[in-house]
Amino acid sequence: MNAEFPDPRHNPDLLAHHAAEQVLLDAWNSGRLPHAWLIGGIPGIGKATLAFRFARFVLANGIEQTGGLFGDPPPAESLYVAPTHPVFTRIASNGHADLLTIERPFDDKKGRLKTDIPVDQVRRIAPFLHLTAAEGGWRVVIVDGADRLNTSGQNAILKILEEPPARTVLLVVTENPGGLLPTIRSRCRKLLLPPLPEDVVSDLLGRHHPDLPDADRAALARLAEGSIGRALDLASAGGLTLYRDLMGLLGTLPKLDLVAAHGLGDKLARKGSDTAYYAVTDLLVWWLARFARSLAREALPPEVVPGEAALMSRLAGDRGLDRWVEVWEKVNRLFARAESANLDRKQVILNALQTVEAAASA
């Protein structure tokens, strides 16, 4: 997660997902809330924010749902819980006894989140859900990054879904619903969040980077393709400048400017340049995928930077879609192999650019 963006535990705001919020509200107000929800969508659009928003709502309103001396409470109109509410503050401090969060642990040695969620964490869910609610209402579990569960972990989730205890809700958050067992998907109510509109991403960028020119915010929003998380990551990494450099270099094709290519490789191989290196590899893969999609649709996408459409038109020529899909696959595999085998970064960048050059000059 980008350090600039509020942790979902602390974030009271949810933007542009009003339809999803209404689905949850309608289910709650009906009195027949499904026990399990699958919240899916691309990274960085607010999936976990929605999950925590709903968890706060359920835990703040669950006791009242059964009615009382004056009958049932009126239907809820929003999932919003004020940051000053005791439920909000306890969840923000990881101190609410009726909420369990399962997520990838932090790897202190590598300074980043671990790749997978250990199955031991998932096995905490069943005993937690069978406890009596500490505050007399509901118990809620959020599994954030469920596609990072191995088969054992997913099977543990499945057992819980087969016999869920009363007044419990499981929120399964994933950026890759297809990576979950079909039986898990079939037992969850699906709630797939769309990418955020470009103007929403641009406005959010302005909140966190008020000095960014409007044109740069718009370009970053287009690069992010609806993900505010990705937009903030790119802004922090100087992603727009790197993208312009990359487009300038690709603009020399079909004969790659080797001096400029070596210069970029040297820059990305320096000590302390991890963020820039990962940004460039991500942007090159993204651009190749975008180019291939434009060939498939026979329509050029909106430009991120000036000259991009002309570059795509020139490279398209009479070279088929299959050729550029193959380039995308090769570059993707190269970057994955470089990460696992710790290959020399300058050489990796040069190899990737030369792969593109070979296709452009064929």
TrEMBL record:
GO biological process: DNA-templated DNA replication
Cellular component, GO, one term: DNA polymerase III complex
Pfam families for this protein: DNA_pol3_delta2
Superkingdom: Bacteria
InterPro entries membership: DNA_Rep/Repair_Clamp_Loader, P-loop_NTPase
Signal peptide: none
PANTHER family: DNA POLYMERASE III SUBUNIT DELTA, REPLICATION FACTOR C / DNA POLYMERASE III GAMMA-TAU SUBUNIT
Designated name of the protein: DNA polymerase III subunit delta
Phylogenetic placement of the source organism: Bacteria, Pseudomonadati, Pseudomonadota, Alphaproteobacteria, Rhodospirillales
